[in-house]
Amino acid sequence: MKVVIQRVLEANVKVDGNTVGEIGKGYLVLLGVGKDDDEAVCDRIIKKLLGLRIFEDENGKTNLSLESVNGELLIVSQFTLYADCRKGNRPSFVDAGDPALANRLYEYFISECSKVVPKVEHGVFGADMKVSLVNDGPFTIILE
Fold it and tell me: Any catalytic annotation for residue 125?
């Protein structure tokens, strides 16, 4: 599993011009599922994601978690995180999870995050999505 976490002031995702997910302060999470991933991998990544202390405290130190700032999550499926560009100029996606696995784990990821975070929004699996954000910092973390 590969996850790109962007600390945002706001973010949204649109499908066919319609907003399907929108948040204020929190994390935009781009989620890529690998062919060998399972629920245990999801659980480990979710624990790390929710435990990150990357919001600034009153002294300007990155010391606060998503929960500490009442942050929100926008989770967007992105298989292209598994692009392998080592050979040639056309990416290979052989390490990405097949669509059935990826969709199942994407839904699991959303469901598990929703148990802890009051506002969890998401995109539409497999759709052509337009993602907009106001990056806060910018502050971007990659988890694998």
Answer: no
